[in-house]
């Protein structure tokens, strides 16, 4: 998530101090990963430098002066463009679970154990999210549903991979065949010594 654009969206309704932005962000988007104050003020400094926010007022405090930030017209345009753009769908063509399964097979370990351990970890997190979803508000429900759907997709992949382990092992060993015994790739040696 873009912290900068999120801050701009939060500032669009009214000017706010940095600590107010942190509190709102943590309440609505932090979900167990609150922002550090350093991130808040570094982000505000970048937004200020790029002209997307301005200092709307300065108030004396017990420590340093407290600045109140307001969004500029350029900031409104920026957040509007960001909201209107689709997010790139995450496609994990080389994810770490796949790498672990392949390395397990290549090193002679039981890849089924690797998949079982991962399945157990996924199910544990899914149970925690389901508990949180049932005891939370609508925002919690939506956030938990998003995570649960992704974890369910992972579980489907784990099941499919478990069903194809023998085939994957054969492919990695270079012995998988297609149809009636035709090799999927030629491993014969060329004249120059490289494999075909």
UniProtKB/TrEMBL annotation:
Residues 8-76 form the Transcription regulator PadR N-terminal domain. Residues 177-196 are annotated as: Disordered. InterPro entries: Tscrpt_reg_PadR_N, WH-like_DNA-bd_sf, WH_DNA-bd_sf. Gene3D superfamilies: Winged helix-like DNA-binding domain superfamily/Winged helix DNA-binding domain (1.10.10.10). Residues 186-196 have a biased composition (Basic and acidic residues). It holds the Pfam family PadR. This is PadR family transcriptional regulator. It comes from Micromonospora arborensis.
């Amino acid at each position: 998530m873009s912290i900068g654009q999120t801050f701009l969206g939060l500032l669009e309704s009214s000017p706010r101090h940095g600590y107010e932005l942190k509190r709102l962000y943590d309440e609505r988007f932090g979900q167990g990963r609150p922002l550090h104050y350093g991130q808040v003020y570094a982000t505000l400094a970048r937004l200020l430098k790029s002209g997307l926010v301005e200092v709307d007022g300065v108030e004396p405090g017990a420590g340093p002066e407290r600045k109140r930030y307001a969004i500029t017209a350029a900031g409104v345009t920026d957040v509007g463009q960001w909201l209107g753009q689709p997010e790139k769908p995450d496609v994990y063509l080389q994810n770490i679970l796949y790498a672990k399964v392949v390395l397990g097979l290549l090193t002679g370990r039981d890849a089924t154990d690797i998949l079982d351990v991962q399945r157990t970890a996924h199910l544990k997190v899914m149970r925690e999210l389901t508990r949180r979803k049932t005891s939370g508000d609508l925002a919690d429900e939506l956030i938990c549903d998003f995570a649960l759907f992704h974890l369910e997709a992972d579980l489907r992949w784990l099941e499919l991979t478990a069903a194809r382990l023998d085939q994957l092992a054969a492919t990695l060993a270079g012995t998988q065949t297609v149809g009636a015994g035709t090799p999927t790739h030629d491993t014969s040696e060329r004249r120059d010594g490289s494999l075909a």
